[in-house]
Design goal:
With about 280 residues, chain A is mainly alpha-helical. The first copy, chain A, has 15 helices and no strands. Chains A, B: InterPro entries: CitG (IPR002736).
């Protein structure tokens, strides 16, 4: 038996995430969006592997992330796994350091540098990521500027941790970075403790994560009220009051896409795989 | 844009193959078998990647294959992609030599050595591959003996090409090895020339391959008559006389599993990806 290394567990986590169904509002084994299809996620996962390999090494984290995104973008669906890679890259690094724990990954995040922040910005040049306008006065730090923002980042001496800390209140992935991935590790524990095929466990934990907190990607796209309502509907599906399959159909039809919840699900799958989740 | 290298195209080919649906009788995006599920193929593809990377290098082909199989086997479904890897490994090597053509891959196959044959036999130790009993007198060369067959291989001076040549009449993948992969390249051309999402093209070419020739894996499991009938039913589905989805349900229910046809489909997807098939 050849053991999968950390980078390959991360790649497999991306694949198991998209295979899990129903994951209401997201592309999954049973559902495509119009221009974003299942195979785009397969190609995105395979393409991200060289960057994930860098994450398992000891070079700069920002470069690993930027490389993973560049490879992920080598398909025609657009942004498939940007957020998931932002979750996975520090987790892979922590695992490779033998410290896959909240404290271990928090140390990885806090150790990021100004260079990491600059390469993180460059990653936005590879793919169109849905982000809101920056607050007034912070236009120079708009991630959509890509490498053009580098002087503003360097002038302010912002590390990648600093950059993500500034959006932690509005972005669920950034919040995980700042807080040591509490939701990711919690979800990983529930995946490990549950039963059945890995994609089924992933679908269940996706619903639990969504029910527990509004998805920040839905907030950005549809506003806080729609996001709260989506979480309430996920809760109803978990409680057996509605059919998760029907909810999946409804969310796709309504354009409700809890992408951040999917990102955390991928991270949780990675942690669970590292802890021996059988596939 | 970061271009996928040959090994990653091969890995993606494995993923696109299993995503294509309906592929009657096989695990696909919509169907699982009882103990062999979609996620086993995902893990098999990811696990095979280090071996595929060796195939893209310049070390022994047999070792690349054995390593790919060992990694593939790191999941609980059993044999997911043994035959597909036997198709892909020489194709990846030919591509890495800039000679992805019938002549190029035939040269790769003919250049295999006795050592390659021995490591090929070792690959059977990693996973339970469905093979029939060897002909009378050839028991010492039964692949199921694994490395125990090494003395018999060396005594006879058999290369991997020689080994496969001996089963070319009963095994569709071995026949490709001996003949320069004519069906694989033909299918790749049809994939490239067709339209639509890559998994849909894969499903179509799977039916075409099956309609054109009986699947040797079905022959081994169910006999030549059942295999001929399966091909006739694939032809009827292609001709619009029956619904391919219904055929998929029927084949799964009847235990008709055209695995060799799926192996060639994976090879054809690889060649098509190398030639620019968009995903």
């Amino acid at each position: 038996m050849v053991r999968r290394d950390h980078a390959r567990n991360a790649e497999l986590a991306l694949l198991l995430e998209v295979a899990g169904t129903p994951k209401p509002g997201n592309v999954d084994r049973r559902r495509d969006h119009d221009d974003l299809r299942f195979e785009h996620f397969l190609a995105g996962a395979v393409g991200s592997a060289p960057g994930l390999r860098l994450a398992g090494g000891d070079g700069p984290i920002g470069e690993a992330f930027e490389r993973a995104v560049a490879g992920m973008a080598e398909q025609r669906g657009g942004n498939t796994q940007f957020g998931a890679l932002l979750v996975l890259v520090p987790l892979v690094r922590a695992a490779s350091e033998g410290a896959l724990s909240k404290g271990g990954v928090r140390r990885v995040c806090e150790a990021t540098t100004v260079d990491d922040a600059c390469t993180f910005y460059r990653a936005f040049e590879h793919v169109d990521v849905g982000v809101p306008d920056p607050p007034a006065g912070l236009e120079p730090l708009d991630v959509r500027r890509g490498s053009a923002a580098e002087p503003a980042i360097r002038e302010r001496g912002l590390t990648l941790f600093d950059v993500l800390e500034r959006s932690a209140s509005v972005d669920g992935v950034a919040r995980e970075w700042v807080e040591g991935f509490p939701r990711t590790f919690g979800a990983a524990e529930r995946i490990t403790a549950s039963e059945g095929p890995a994609p089924d466990r992933a679908a269940r934990v996706f619903l639990e994560l969504l029910a527990a907190e509004p998805d920040t990607f839905v907030v950005k796209r549809r506003g806080p009220e729609a996001a709260r309502e989506a979480s309430a509907r996920a809760r109803a599906a978990l409680d057996g009051e509605t059919d998760p399959e029907a909810l999946a159909e409804a969310f796709v039809a309504e354009g409700i896409n809890p992408g951040t919840t999917a990102d955390l699900t991928a991270g949780a799958l990675f942690v669970a795989l590292e802890r021996g989740l059988p596939v």
